[in-house]
Amino acid sequence: MNDMRSGNFRTFDPAREAGAEPPQPRGNSLRDRIRRAETAPQPAAPAQPDSAASGAAPSPSGYVHQPQPGPAADPAPPPATAPTPTPASTPASAPAETLARTADAASPRLGEAPPRPSDSVPRSEPRPPEPVAEDEDSSENAALPLGVVLEISGAGSMIAIDLQRLSECADDKDPAVAMAGQVGSQIKIRVGNSWLIASVRNQKQDRKAGSILADIDFLGEGKEEKLTGRLFGFKRGVTRFPVPGAMVYPASTRDLKQVYASDGRSAVTIGKVFPTKDIRAGLYVDAMLGKHFALLGSTGTGKSTSAALILHRICEAAPEGHIVMIDPHGEYAAAFKQTGIILDVSNLQMPYWLMNFQEHCEVLLTSNGNDRQTDADILAKALLKARQKSRLAEQMSKITVDSPIPYLLSDLSTAIKDAMGTLDKATNSAPYMRISTKLDDLRSDPRYQFMFSGMLVADTMKEFISKVFRMPADGKPISIIDVSGVPSDITSTVVAVLSRLVFDFAIWGREGRTTPILLVCEEAHRYVPNEKNADGNTVGTILSRIAKEGRKYGISLGLITQRPSDLAEGVLSQCGTIISMRLNNDRDQEFVRAAMPEGARGFLDAIPALRNRECIICGEGVAIPIRVSFDNLEEIKRPASEDPSFVELWSQAGGEEDIVERTVTRWRSQG
Ligand SMILES: Nc1ncnc2c1ncn2[C@@H]1O[C@H](COP(=O)(O)OP(=O)(O)OP(=O)(O)O)[C@@H](O)[C@H]1O
Ligand SMILES: [Mg+2]
Predict the structure, then answer these.
(1) Does the beta carbon of 328 sit less than 6 angstroms from any atom of ligand 1?
(2) Which fold has domain 280-349+460-634+645-649?
(3) Which terminal residue of the chain has fewer beta carbons within 10 Å of its beta carbon, N or C?
(4) Pocket test for ligand 1, best of 298, 305, 614, 632 (most atoms within 8 A of CB)
(5) Is residue 645 in contact with ligand 1, taking CB distance under 6 Å?
(6) Residue 381 to residue 385: CA distance in whole angstroms
C-alpha cells in the first residue's frame, strides 16, 4: 500500500551501515578453554551428550563439571567432530503445531542436546528452506560450547561468552543457534543429567579476557535423554543450579520446541516463537483469562490486530464463550461481523434505568463542590420515588436507588418538580432546576436516544443481558460494543454501566453455575486512569474493582492500552499475563518492567527493539517468558484500523467537493 514511488515521492534506499561487522575475536583463555572442551577426547567433554556421568571429573579445560548423580554413564568416548548429514529417508519434518503435541514430550525427536555422531537415527540432507528440525540435527554449533558459567546467584548468573564462537553461531542455519548468546536469546547449561535453560539478559565486554560477559536468567530445566543427550520434559523453575565452570551451549530449535511445547493444558496458538521458523507460540486460555491480561504497545505496533487475533482464536476454540469488547473507535465491527454481534448506538438500546444512583449522578448532575451534594440528595429522593412507582416495584419487598427497576423518565421529572413545588419561598430552587433541565435535554437530544428514550421503559433487562453477554452465544461468542457514536460526555458512564452489569451479574449469579465472562477494554487508560488523570468517574472504580476481585467470580479483564503508565496504579500488576508489544516511551517501559516477573528481564530489554507485530508475553498464560511474532491475520478478520497511505491518497485528485459535502451533511445530522 505504501508505494513510495507514487506521485512525486522518491523511494528511499538507506545506505548500509558501516562498521556493522561482528567484533573480531582475539586469542584468549576462554576461547582456549572452550576449544579444549570441544576437542577433548575424554567422555567428560561437555559437548558429548551421553557423558551423563562424566561430569564428575574435571574437564580437560580445567572447569569442574557438575557432579553427576544417577546411574553409571555410558563410557563410550564420542568423537569431537560433528555428525555428517547423510541423505536419508527419515526424520519427519518439524511439526507445525508442536504446541498441540505435548504428549510425546519424551520423544527423543523433539528435543535434542548436542548431537552424537554415533546417533543411529539417519539424518537428512540439510535443505535451508525446509523445517529446522532437519537442519538442526546437523548443526555443529549446537553441539559446541559457547561459553562458560562464571558466577551463580538465585535467579540468574553470569556467564562468559567466547567472541569467536558467537560469530560462528551467528552464521548457523538454525535461527535459534544463530541468535544464541545475544540479548534475549536462550542458552542451555548442563547440570548433572539435566539441562538448564536460561535467557541472556545483557552483554558487556570483558576487556581483559577479550570475551563477553552476560547476565542470564534461569527459565527452567529439562531432563536429558540418556541415549541422545536431548532435552525433554521441560519444566519451569530450577531445582539444581550449575557450578561456576559449567559449559554453556546454544539452545537449538529442537531444544526450544521442548521448552515451548504445551504441557497439556488447553491453549490457543497465536504466532511463532522468535527467532524460530516453525515453533508455534501458544497461550494457556484458562491461566490467561483466570488472572486477567494486558496487551500493551505504542501506537501502530499492532495491538488492535493482535487483540482481534487472540479473540478470534479464543472464539474458535470456545464457540459458547461470553466475551464483551468495549470498542471506543468502532474498529472491531469489521473484524467480528461473522463471529460476533455488533452493538452501537443504533441497536444497543441500553435502558437508562439500568444505571445505579452513582451513574445517574454522573449523567444528570452538572454542579460541583457543595452544590453537587445538594443536587445528589434531591436526585436520590426523586429517583427512589420514580422507581417505587413502577409496577414491578409492587412485587418487591425492598427497593433502593440502585435497584435495576424500570421507571418512567416522566415520573422522575414529575418527582423533581413536585419536590420543588413544596419548597417555601426562602429555599433556593436552582438545584431542582439544574437537574430538571439536564433531564429534559437528554430526553430531547436524539444523540442520547439509544439510552434515554421513552421507548426503553419496558422491562428488557433479561433480553439486554442475554444479548450483550451472549447467553446463549448461538455461535457468536463475542459482542462488540461500539461506543464511538456515544456522545463523549456519557461514554464513560456507558462503559461503567456495562462493566458493572458484568460484575453484578457474576455476583448475583455466584450461587449457581459460574458463567465466566471476559470483558475486554480498548484504550483502557481512558477508563482506568492513574491518580494524575483521575476524574473520579465510576468506570475507573468499577474496572479497578473487577481487576482486584473479578477473578473470584469468574470475570476476566483484558486491558489494551498504548499508555501503561497512565493506567491506575495496581491495575497492571493485577494482570497475570502481560503481552507487550514495542513501547517507545521510557516511563511506559518502566511500568511494564515493574509489573513483569523477574525472570522476564532478558526479554524486557527487547521491548523497545521489537518489530511491529512482535511481542513479549510473560506471566500465567505462558510457561516461560516468550517472544512471539504474531501470525498474519486474514484481512476479513482484521479491525478497521489500517494505516492510511498518505503517499497514495495525496497523489489522487478528484471528488473533493463530494467528500466535503457528504461529511458536512452527516456531521450536521449527527448520523
Ligand atoms: N497480525 C497482523 N496481521 C496482519 N496485519 C497486521 C497484524 N498486526 C498488525 N497489522 C497491521 O499493522 C497496522 C497497525 O495495526 P493496529 O491498528 O492493530 O495497531 P495499534 O497498535 O492498535 O495502533 P493504535 O495504537 O493506533 O490503535 C494495521 O495496518 C494492521 O493491519
Ligand atoms: Mg488500536
Answers:
(1) no
(2) Rossmann fold (3.40.50)
(3) N
(4) 305
(5) no
(6) 6
- In 3-state terms, what secondary structure has residue 248? strand
CA of 301 to the centre of ligand 1 (A): 6
* Local structure of 187: helix, strand or coil: strand
pLDDT along the chain (671 residues), means of 10: 48 44 48 62 38 35 33 38 38 38 33 35 38 50 89 84 90 90 89 90 84 90 82 86 92 89 86 90 93 94 95 93 95 93 93 95 92 93 93 85 93 93 80 94 92 88 94 93 93 95 92 89 92 82 93 94 90 92 91 78 80 91 91 93 81 90 85 57
In whole angstroms, what is the distance from residue 324 CA to residue 502 CA? 9
Which residues share a beta bridge with 212?
Answer: 161, 205
Nearest CA to ligand 1 atom 29: 642
Q: How far is the CA of 305 from the centre of ligand 1 (A)?
A: 5
- Which residue has a Cα nearest atom 1 of ligand 1? 632
d(CA 571, CA 145): 43
| CB of 448 closer than 8 Å to CB of 442 | yes
User: Quick check: CB of 562 below 6 Å from ligand 1?
Assistant: yes
Instruction: Judge whether 284 and 211 are in contact, CB under 8 Å.
Output: no
Q: Is 230 in the pocket of ligand 1 (CB under 6 A)?
A: no
Report CA torsion sign: 64, 65, 66, 67.
Answer: negative
User: For residue 543, how far is the Cα from the chain centroid?
Assistant: 18
User: Residue 453 corresponds to which cell in the numbers above?
Assistant: 428514550
The span from the CA of 232 to the CA of 229, in Å, is: 9
How many angstroms does the Cα of residue 507 sit away from the middle of ligand 2?
Answer: 31
Domain range annotation of the chain: 29-264, 280-349+460-634+645-649, 354-449
